[in-house]
Specification:
It contains 1 helix and 3 strands; from the N terminus they run βββα. It is an alpha+beta fold and 60 residues long. The protein has one domain. It has a 3-stranded antiparallel sheet, with helices on one face. The chain is elongated, with a radius of gyration of 14 Å. The model has no long low-confidence stretch (mean pLDDT 87).
Amino acid sequence: MKKGTFVVKILSNENGTWQGRITYAEENRIQYFRSLLEMIKLIDEAVSAEEENEIFKASS
C-alpha cells in the first residue's frame, strides 16, 4: 500500500484549537482546516481515498 505525505502548517491557535493548512505532497494540493478535528478528518479521507484507489487498481 502506498503511503501519503502530508505537511501540516499551524497558522493560528484560536478558541482552543488549531487552524492551518495541509499540503498533500504527492498531489501538490493545499487544503485549509479550522480545527484539529477537521484536520484529522481531511487526512483520514485522503488516506481512505488512496486505499480505495489501490484496491480498485488491484481488482482491474
